[in-house]
TrEMBL record:
Pfam families: RNA_ligase, T4_Rnl2_C. This is RNA ligase domain-containing protein. Residues 28-204 form the RNA ligase domain. Residues 235-284 form the RNA ligase 2 C-terminal domain. InterPro entries: RNA_ligase_dom_REL/Rnl2 (IPR021122), Rnl1/2_C_sf (IPR041948), Rnl2_C (IPR040609).
Length: 310
């Protein structure tokens, strides 16, 4: 399994369904400065060196600007590795996501001392069954954990600037500050709203940095999106501890090494029952999205096996 994982696409504010904003009005979001640079994935496997990838998975570990920026991050990354190992001892790799700023070729704004630097904004872990994205609060929690390592490091110097933390309903988008706390001339590209209550995160670019407006989604596209979300919510309910016990009784498997096999059997069992109860989704064009439950199966199986072995 590759240590590279593509960062999820993030819509602009104008692309977000207004009804979705209302539905998520009580969600809590971190508002951070959107930095003008190049999106990087910093992949780490146990006992291996860091590998750096571009947004599309190209290995940039030997890029001159990247190497300069990584040298500045060296002490902090060593501390992060300790902190992540303590918080997530069951993983077999993880990735940090950051913006490479002050690159000699890819920049419009200068930050700080104008030397290549990586500002972190995301975090994902890799388990036996695949990748799971963590939210911005989880990245902050890693920073907090650093205070308990042998080499405490001020991680805030290497994270995108946090401007505020609010409920979505309390944000006036027209009154958001457009001043940067880092750039040479105080100009800010925009802001990113990192949702820690749900997966509705998005960005807002300020004048001069807007992306070309895309056509608004059609009523059919919005309806499809709502259908997928509703069906997925139904499917998630089929993942229960009782079902795990039922699957285990058929497999006679109790070893943690067999978790991937158990999760696969659990998923098949849940899918079969879901399709019997909801035949309208059989052969659906977005079935893969409907049946995506992330790491829920893995966590359920892990919990049940732990209870059995107590």
């Amino acid at each position: 399994m590759s240590i590279f994982k593509h960062w999820p696409h993030m819509d602009n504010l104008y692309q977000i369904d207004k009804q979705a904003l209302k539905d998520h009005a009580n969600d809590v979001v971190y508002i951070t400065e959107k930095c003008d640079g190049c999106n990087l994935c910093l992949g780490k496997e146990p006992n291996q060196d860091w590998r750096i990838f571009s947004r599309n998975g190209e290995d940039w570990s030997q890029n001159r600007d990247v190497k300069t920026a990584m040298e500045r991050l060296k002490l902090m990354l060593n501390s992060i590795d300790v902190a992540v190992s303590k918080q997530y001892p069951y993983i077999n790799g993880y990735a940090l996501y950051g913006e490479l700023v002050n690159s000699q070729k890819l920049h419009r704004l200068w930050y700080g001392d104008k030397k290549p630097q990586i500002l972190l904004f995301g975090f994902a872990i890799r388990t036996e069954i695949g990748w799971r994205f963590k939210n911005f609060q989880d990245l902050i929690n890693v920073a907090i954990q650093l205070n308990f390592t042998a080499h405490p490091t001020d991680m805030t110097r290497f994270v995108v600037p946090i401007l505020n933390k609010k409920r979505l309903k309390d944000i006036n988008f027209e009154q958001l500050s457009q001043n940067s706390v880092l750039t040479e001339n105080g100009i800010c590209e925009g802001v990113v709203l990192h949702n820690i209550s749900s997966d509705l995160s998005f960005k807002l670019k300020f004048a001069g940095f807007e992306e070309k407006a895309k056509s608004k989604p059609t009523a059919e596209e919005l309806e499809l999106k709502r259908t997928i979300k509703g069906a997925n919510s139904l499917f998630v309910n089929y993942f229960t501890e009782q079902r795990v016990y039922s699957v285990l009784s058929k497999m006679n498997a109790t070893d943690a090494k067999e978790i991937p096999k158990i999760v696969k059997a659990l998923t098949v069992d849940a899918t079969e029952d879901f399709m019997k109860d909801h035949p309208e989704f059989v052969g659906h064009e977005e079935l893969k999205k409907i049946l995506n439950v992330g790491a829920k199966g893995f966590l359920l199986v892990k919990k049940v096996l732990s209870q059995q072995n107590e």
